[in-house]
């Protein structure tokens, strides 16, 4: 019973399927002599889909010629009713949309003028021929009317050759100079597809000037024409700071370049905190914000900004293409109060080896427009970012960018006689102050690749400690070993095992604040003896070098009076010109003792002189008493009458 029921259902399904197929193919049988292979392949209606701008005119048609007695119906999106194109009961709808039979071809077609937003969707055309019907459906997408780019509105805006000059949905474009159009030279212009760009060349690399753009855009038949003014703008990084109550946003945007951003780094200058700012990742307080590396935007969002966050930052951007990578950056000031322009991060003393390439740095805390250096003999060295290595110049700019406040000069060859001495560097920013900011520093040049940080001559005092040493060039280059030779020929090496508990020769040991791994070798003499004064030799082997380097240092007795500067110097001063706490205490105690002694001696001399004057006065009175006794007698009488005695008179005198 179940099997027979299943068989009956199967037969009924086949019967229904055959009837449905007959109904679907019935119109084709009546119209097979009217259709071509194109119509069978692409459908009856043309076009099957259309994108039209709001306010334009739209045309739809069936690819079947109409005969006498045929009717043409259309149905709007969302409507359940078919409307006759030639008129009918719904004339108000026809007048509202102005739908008319196409002129020329005898086809079932309509024209919609103008197109509104509500016209988007599926439109249906139906050709009725007796009992037969041929239908077609078109998908209509209504878009906003394309607009002229804002950068080129009215032909008065100035843009760079890297800005987008295409309207939205551009299909083709012609770009040429206005002078060429006025001269009738538009015949050689080749249309561009989907995007407008400047036809730059070797003879016209920047495209600066006035251009005319003619573009065909999707959704409308009329072409768009407008003018643009191109300025030659160099690539730059534009910074911005947005401060809200609970978050700050620091942004750096790369502009006027065809290259794409590859990486972004923010550095907090107060403590050197570095952040690799990448879209999609972050920390509880820091994260990326912006339109993406594709738009050359990099922003740092700081949630709950704290003390150090409210200071100066640097953004460092790497950008390029498959064959090139460039690095640039800028300073972003997030301070509550703007600090004045100042030179920061400068070495008090710069060291270099004679005859080698070396750099001098002088960085500022704000972006700078320019910088320059003055040498020890009055030389002037002006710098710019365009002054690069390879131009054959004896010096060039060293640093990432002036916009980061970085000013550096690199010499191809640094010479002792020309470059050693006191230098001055100057930086300027016209937006901050008309006055330049300057700083000075010392440049010391060594004949070898090690040098004494305290100078060629170190002052010491007999019986007091002294410090000698030598550092590698460049600073921080590790030393494999180091050793010293005393003036009387004693030689010994130093390492971390030579300490105050285990000194060499009972009084030489390593300075615990220096180590060979950082390229520093430093010797402490516990108590200077007479034989220690003279020429010392510091020698060290830098890792990777075949031989060791040697540098000579003179240990001079300050008590000899032959001070190097031509002036008497205090014997308590250290070799580098600074005073220790013990020296200062000794000087104070000595000064007090000297002043107290001077007061005591002066008081003793005063009492002694007063005693001599008193004795001399008494002797003179006695002499006068013996020689002029009557006068004294009269005087005495006169005084006695006043109830006084001669003894009292002498006492009064």
Descriptive report:
The chain is an alpha+beta fold. The protein has five domains: 40-143, Sandwich (Immunoglobulin-like); 147-233, no CATH class; 246-333, Immunoglobulin-like (Sandwich); 343-446, Sandwich (Immunoglobulin-like); 450-557, Sandwich (Immunoglobulin-like). It has eight helices and 40 strands. The strands form ten sheets. It has a five-stranded mixed sheet. It has a five-stranded mixed sheet with strand order 9-13-12-10-11. The protein has a five-stranded mixed sheet with strand order 23-31-30-26-27, with no helix packed on it. Strand 20 and strand 21 (325-333) form a beta hairpin. It is elongated, with a radius of gyration of 50 Å. The termini are far apart. Residues 1-42, 91-104, 152-156, 563-595 and 613-653 have low confidence and may be disordered. Residues 628-653 are annotated as: Disordered. It comes from Anopheles coluzzii. This is Ig-like domain-containing protein.
CATH class of the largest domain: Mainly Beta
Largest sheet: 5 strands, mixed
Looking at CATH, the homologous superfamily of the largest domain is Immunoglobulins
Structural class: alpha+beta
Low-confidence stretches: 1-42, 91-104, 152-156, 563-595, 613-653
Whole-Å distance between the termini?
A: 170 Å
What is the general shape? elongated
Q: Please give the number of β-strands.
A: 40
The count of domains is 5
Radius of gyration: 50 Å
Predict the CATH topology of the largest domain: Immunoglobulin-like
> Could you estimate the helical fraction of the residues in percent?
10-25%
**What is the arithmetic mean of pLDDT?**
78
Oligomer: single chain
Major sheet: order of its strands? 2-8-7-4-5
CATH architecture of the largest domain: Sandwich
Strand content: 35-45%
């Amino acid at each position: 019973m179940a099997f027979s029921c299943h068989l009956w259902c199967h037969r009924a399904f086949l019967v229904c399927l055959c009837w449905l197929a007959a109904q679907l193919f019935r119109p084709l049988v009546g119209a097979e002599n009217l259709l071509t292979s194109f119509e069978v392949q692409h459908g009856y209606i043309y076009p099957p889909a259309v994108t039209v701008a709001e306010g334009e005119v739209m045309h739809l048609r069936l690819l079947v010629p109409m005969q006498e007695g045929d009717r043409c119906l259309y149905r709007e999106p969302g409507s359940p009713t078919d409307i006759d194109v030639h008129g009918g009961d719904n004339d108000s709808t026809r007048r509202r949309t102005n739908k008319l039979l196409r002129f020329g071809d005898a086809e079932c077609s309509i024209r919609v003028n103008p197109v509104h937003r509500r016209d988007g969707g599926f439109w249906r055309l139906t050709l009725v021929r007796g009992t037969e019907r041929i239908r077609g459906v078109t998908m209509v997408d209504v878009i906003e009317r394309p607009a002229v780019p804002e950068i080129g509105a009215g032909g008065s805006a100035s843009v760079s050759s890297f800005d987008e000059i295409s309207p939205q949905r551009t299909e083709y474009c012609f770009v040429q100079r206005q002078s060429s159009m006025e001269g009738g030279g538009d015949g050689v212009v080749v249309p561009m597809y989907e995007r407008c760009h400047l036809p730059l060349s070797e003879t016209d690399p920047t495209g600066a000037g006035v251009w005319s753009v003619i573009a065909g855009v999707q959704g409308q038949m009329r072409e768009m024409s407008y003018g643009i003014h191109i300025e030659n703008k160099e690539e730059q990084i534009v910074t911005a700071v947005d401060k809200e109550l609970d978050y700050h946003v620091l942004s750096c945007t790369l502009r006027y370049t065809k290259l794409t951003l590859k990486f972004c780094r923010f550095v907090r200058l107060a403590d050197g905190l570095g952040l690799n700012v990448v879209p999609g990742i972050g920390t509880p307080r820091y994260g990326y914000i912006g339109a993406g590396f594709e738009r050359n935007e990099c922003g740092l969002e700081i949630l709950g900004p704290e003390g150090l966050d409210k200071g100066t930052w640097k953004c460092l951007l790497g950008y390029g293409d498959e064959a090139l990578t460039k690095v640039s950056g800028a300073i972003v000031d997030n301070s509550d109060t703007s600090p004045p322009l100042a030179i920061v991060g400068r070495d008090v003393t710069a060291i270099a080896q004679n005859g080698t390439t070396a750099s001098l740095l002088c960085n500022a805390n704000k972006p700078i427009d320019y910088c320059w250096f003055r040498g020890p003999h009055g030389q002037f060295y002006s710098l710019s970012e365009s002054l690069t290595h390879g131009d054959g110049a004896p010096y060039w700019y060293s640093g990432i960018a002036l916009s980061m406040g970085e000013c550096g000069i690199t010499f191809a060859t640094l010479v002792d006689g020309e470059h050693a001495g006191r230098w001055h560097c100057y930086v300027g920013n016209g937006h901050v102050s008309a006055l330049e900011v300057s700083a000075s520093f010392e440049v010391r040049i060594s004949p070898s690749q090690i040098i004494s940080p305290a100078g060629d001559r170190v002052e010491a005092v007999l019986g007091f400690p002294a410090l000698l040493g030598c550092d590698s060039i460049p600073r921080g280059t590790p030393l494999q070993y180091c050793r010293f030779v005393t003036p009387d020929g004693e030689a010994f090496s130093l390492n971390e095992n030579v300490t105050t508990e285990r000194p060499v020769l009972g009084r030489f040991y390593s300075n615990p604040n220096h180590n060979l791994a950082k390229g520093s070798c430093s010797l402490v003499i516990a108590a200077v003896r007479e034989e220690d004064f003279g020429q010392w030799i510091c020698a060290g082997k830098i890792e990777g070098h075949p031989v060791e380097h040697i540098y000579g240092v003179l240990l001079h007795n300050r008590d000899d009076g032959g001070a190097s500067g031509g002036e008497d110097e205090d014997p308590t001063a250290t070799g580098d010109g600074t005073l220790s706490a013990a020296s200062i205490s000794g000087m104070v105690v000595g000064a007090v003792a000297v002043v107290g002694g001077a007061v005591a001696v002066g008081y003793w001399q005063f009492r002694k002189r007063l005693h001599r004057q008193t004795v001399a006065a008494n002797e003179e009175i006695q002499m006068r008493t013996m020689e002029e006794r009557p006068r004294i007698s009269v005087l005495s009488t006169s005084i006695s009458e006043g109830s006084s005695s001669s003894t009292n008179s002498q006492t009064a005198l």
